[in-house]
Design goal:
By secondary structure, this protein is of the alpha+beta class. A hairpin with a 2-residue loop joins strand 18 (518-519) and strand 19 (522-523).
Length: 645
């Protein structure tokens, strides 16, 4: 796991590539390298994971000197590929060198052989062609821009800014985020002129021209629903999952696991315990809060295991929020979810302190096995469209029973109302618990007009549920979570691995029908059944907790004064994005107890923090001014707050 950077063009000089590398030092503190030839410069920050020796230094040259590589990520099947490419004269044990061997043999098609998370660039010195690639799901980042005759790329946008790319907000991206709540859903970023290479895509730069090619899309790989018996589906899933975890335990540094209070991470921990060789104690890390109502630390005790393990807990209190929010804003380079992201950011500082470099986590299950409440109505509509009325009634009854509603008749009516809203595409954007989370009435007419209608996403599947899952996996939910998780872990030089997002598992789960994902109203049915031999019933059957942080309570309580300061500030009023008086009125109603979702409040504050950090500070630096306005740890907005780094 590393930071990569490069320049192709007239500005490919040592000073510029050096500053790009330096600003990403947190991504790879173990080694630093730059390489130049006329018209090209490559840079690398290394976090040593496989082969800790100097043999892994990058930029890395192929044995014949023709190709030069900078690589961020892990190729988990590098040992198998090394055996297949045994004729290459290897000089290291790294997976990086396997990329060079694979590119020499297969060219751009090498990416289809890799099982991993990656963003890399290969410079061909003979043809003067740059080949860039990003992994299938977009776990690792790759950003690029053109500036003053040069083509630049980097793991993080701040490296592009350090190279001179202007820090300007992308108005369309901000409008879509504020009005529709969508972000990280395409190549555009929150910075004008800066693009993200889409997941599953390669980019070739030759004579200044970009050629993009999509090499993987789950809708192409899993085109039709398979008729698989339940037991067969469970066995196939377990075989794939065991192998995905086994591959992701490969490392020459300590490996741990992030453990939350849910089925996904419990299944991961049980499987790690099953497939690991038991060398040393397993290190498990859990984020918690000072509010006891959101404490899930006892959950881990109910997960069976064979090997020794040590649990580490880091708690977050409201007094730490604003300091962490400024720090996280700098690393994230984009809006983020709120208190949950800060708690997770905070947790990786603990992993750093404990010396655990690699962490596995349970991301991706909800987007493949319909883990959120808003998926239910789409599954119900599929049953209705198929004429399966008896199955539909059973699903609605099961959902109502799981919800524990006192008035079951009213609950069933509400379920059918959600179906009608889903059929018409109405109801507006929804949070994972089904609640509305935006407040468009507080935005300016210009912001509303610029956003236009809700983005139209591809619907490649016959099932409605499949299309909504595809939207979340490819465009909305998962891309932003993966971006947030990459930045918060790399802020502390920690590597996150996502075994559920092994592309073989993704393809398999997308080939299954909705009835194996939601059954009797219960989401993630396949995972619950598959884990029957590994987890106790109370863990497998535990309902997903829709609200897992005290964000609502804290924003109404201890964090409220700082929020009011932001909403009353001159800079917030002058952005042209919000109607400040409407924001203050909406926040007053929220503080008085109206509504249950606090995201819109965090959205406003996070937007202001981003503009202060990246736009206002850049303007001050250009004019010789001081530091950006921020919110210090005490909670009140003021000038001269410490910078995050």
């Amino acid at each position: 796991m590393c930071g990569i950077a490069g320049i192709v063009g007239s500005r490919a000089d040592e000073a510029t590539i050096a500053v790009m590398v330096d600003v990403q030092h947190h991504r790879g503190p173990d080694d630093r390298g730059v390489w130049l030839e006329p018209g090209v410069a490559l840079g690398h920050d290394r976090l040593s994971i496989i082969d800790l020796s100097r043999d892994g230094h990058q930029p890395m040259h192929s044995a014949d000197g023709r190709y030069v590589l900078v690589f961020n990520g892990e190729i988990y099947n590098h040992l198998e590929l090394r055996r297949e490419l045994a004729d290459y004269p290897y000089r290291s044990r790294t997976d990086s060198e396997v990329i060079l061997a694979a590119y020499r043999r297969w060219g751009p098609a090498c990416v289809e052989r890799f099982n991993g998370m990656f963003a890399f660039a290969v410079w061909d010195r003979r043809t003067r062609r740059l080949f860039c690639a990003r992994d299938r799901l977009g776990i690792k980042p790759f950003h690029y821009a053109r500036h003053r005759g040069a083509w630049l790329f980097a793991s993080e946008i701040k490296a592009l800014l350090a190279a001179g790319v202007p820090a300007r907000p992308d108005a369309d991206t901000w409008a879509a985020y504020l009005v529709h709540g969508v972000y990280d859903h395409g190549p555009a970023t929150f910075f004008e002129g800066v693009s993200a290479l889409p997941p599953g895509t390669t980019l070739t730069l030759e004579e200044g021209r970009e050629t993009l090619r999509t090499y993987w899309d789950v809708a192409v790989r899993a085109t039709a629903v398979r008729d698989v018996a339940d037991r067969e589906a469970e066995e196939e899933f377990l075989a794939l999952f065991d192998d995905a975890v086994r591959l992701r335990l490969r490392a020459d540094v300590p490996v741990g696991v992030n453990l939350s209070g849910g089925l996904d991470s419990a299944s991961l921990l049980a499987t790690m315990d099953r497939v690991s060789e038991g060398a040393g104690a397993l290190q498990a890390f859990t984020a918690a809060f000072s509010d006891a109502a959101y404490d899930e630390t006892d959950f881990a005790d109910r997960v069976p295991r064979r090997h020794a393990w040590t649990r580490h807990v880091r708690r977050l209190g409201p007094e730490e929020v604003w300091r962490l929010a400024e720090e996280a804003t700098w690393h994230q380079e984009a809006p983020f979810g709120g208190i949950a992201t800060l708690a997770y950011h905070h947790l990786h500082g603990l992993a750093c302190e404990k010396g655990v470099t690699v962490l596995l986590e349970g991301q991706g299950v909800d987007e493949m096995l319909a883990g959120y409440r808003y998926f239910g109505p789409h599954h119900h509509l599929d049953l209705l469209d198929a004429g399966a009325c008896r199955a539909l009634r059973a699903e609605v009854r099961g959902q109502v029973a799981l919800e524990g509603a006192a008035d079951r008749v009213a609950a069933r009516r509400a379920a059918f109302a959600r179906m009608r809203a889903a059929r018409g595409g109405g109801g507006g954007p929804r949070y994972q618990d089904g609640t509305a989370f935006l407040a468009p009435e507080a935005l300016t007419p210009a912001t509303l007009a610029r956003a236009g209608p809700y983005p139209g996403f591809a619907r490649p599947y016959a099932e409605r549920l499949g299309n909504v899952l595809y939207r979340d996996l490819r465009h909305t939910k998962l891309p932003r979570v993966l971006r947030m998780n990459d930045r918060l872990s790399m802020a502390f030089s920690r590597e996150l691995r996502e075994p559920y997002l092994d592309h073989r598992i993704v393809e398999f789960l997308f080939s299954l029908p909705g009835r194996q994902k939601i059954r009797a109203g219960r989401p993630k049915d396949l995972l619950r059944r598959a884990m029957a031999s590994r987890l106790p019933d109370d863990v497998r059957g535990a309902p997903k907790r829709a609200v897992v942080t005290p964000q609502r309570e804290w924003l109404r309580g201890p964090l409220a004064p700082a929020v009011e300061d932001v909403l009353s500030s001159r800079s917030f009023a002058e952005r042209g994005l919000f109607r400040p008086e409407a924001c203050r009125e909406a926040f007053a109603r929220f503080r008085a107890g109206e509504g249950s979702n606090a995201f819109f409040v965090w959205q406003w504050v996070g937007t202001e923090l981003w503009f202060r950090r990246f736009i206002d500070q850049a303007a001050r630096l250009r004019t010789g001014g001081g530091r950006a306005t921020g919110i210090p740890a005490g909670g009140r907005a003021s000038a001269g707050a410490p910078e995050p780094e």
